[in-house]
Amino acid sequence: MGLFILRRLGVMILTALCLTFIVFWLTNLYPNLEKLAKTQGNFRMSDEAVTSYLGDRGYLQPLPVKFGQWLGVLPGWVTEKPEGKTFGRCFAAGTPDIARPTRCGILQGDWGFSTVFREPVGGTVLTRLALTGKLMLCVLLLMVPSALLVGVLAGMREGSKLDRSLSTFSIATTATPEYVSGVIFIAVLASSKFGLSPLLNDWGLIDSKTLFLGSATSAMADATFWNFFLPVLTISLYGMGYIARMTRASMTEVMTAQYIRTARLKGVKFSDIVLKHALRNALIAPFTVIMLQIPWLLNGVVIVETLFNYKGFGWLLVQAAGNNDIELLLAVSVVSVAVVLLTQLISDIGYVYLNPRIRIA
């Protein structure tokens, strides 16, 4: 197992380097750099002024050199001005020579400076990632148990009315995009003029004007059931159907296995057959699907966070891409790649433990 993990870690590092290099190349194309120069300077800048701006800040160096500086394996650029002013990637203008660091990149913990938020990228990413992590945790706590329950109930008796009803529900939730279900939930549950909220308020069942809050901005500081349930429900319903369908298919296959038939012929209670014999084997395939939901949640919450004005990691990605914030966009990409690769590793390890028949050569 140890050798397997080491091999996978090596492949993960190589994959991460390749993917980040591709993102780095795409974000450092000259049209993006020209837009960055005009955004930070003046939109009426001449071509010579743009070239001077980019050259002074190291953007016109060869791509491998810039990538090495961004990683922190190569010394950062230094620009000497005729008037004696010196500035570089790793230090501010006027910093004494003795206090100037040579390398400043990802390996040194320096993620760069955001041109949109005017603050270091590292702190910005960590803050927004924590907010999305809180949202993801709530979604997983609701989505995974509900999906497994629906899938197991549907797969216990294939072809029954319960199976058909739950399967239809699963397909409907998966086929409904978040921007559709989210708008429906806001209109039905978070509107003071339409839906259920006015009726419940008239009947005296709720004290507030709405059953839930249509914006999750206040949940960033203090998440409550009132202001956080709708975005959690919107994401959970969309992902729940896929896990439920996978669990149902796996449960159906297990329930027709020979050892299950033998247990039933021996007179073992049906509940014991499901819980003690079928359930563990049926969860092997859904486990991988559940782990794949984590990177999807991290990058797929863009629509929901924008819809409910929840300024998390997905909202940060939109801001970085829309404002051509190269350093921030690179940091978001690195975090996304790391989360995907780590969840894949955890999925492979968990799969081995769940299925003892797998042997690692």
Question: Would you kindly provide a written description of the structure presented here, covering whatever features stand out?
Answer:
- The protein is an all-alpha fold and 361 residues long.
- It is built from 15 helices and two strands.
- Helix 6 (161-175) packs across helix 9.
- The longest helix has 36 residues, at 121-156.
- The radius of gyration is 26 Å and the shape is flat.
Structural class: mainly alpha
- Give the name of the CATH superfamily of the largest domain: MetI-like
Main pleated sheet: 2 strands, antiparallel
CATH topology of the largest domain: MetI-like fold
Strands ordered across the widest β-sheet? 1-2
- The CATH class assignment of the largest domain is Mainly Alpha
Count the E strands: 2
Q: Approximately how much beta-strand content do the residues carry?
A: under 5%
The quaternary organization reads as: single chain
Quick structural overview:
This protein is an all-alpha fold. It contains 15 helices and 2 strands.
Can you give keywords for this protein?
mainly alpha, MetI-like fold, 2 domains, two-stranded antiparallel ribbon, 15 helices, about 65% helix, about 0% strand
Fold topology:
Blueprint: H1 2-27, H2 30-40, H3 47-56, H4 63-71, E1 78-80, E2 86-88, H5 121-156, H6 161-175, H7 178-189, H8 196-202, H9 225-255, H10 258-265, H11 270-282, H12 284-300, H13 302-307, H14 313-322, H15 326-354
Antiparallel strand pairs: 1-2
Helix pairs in contact: 1-15, 2-3, 5-6, 5-9, 5-12, 5-14, 6-9, 7-9, 9-11, 9-12, 12-15, 14-15
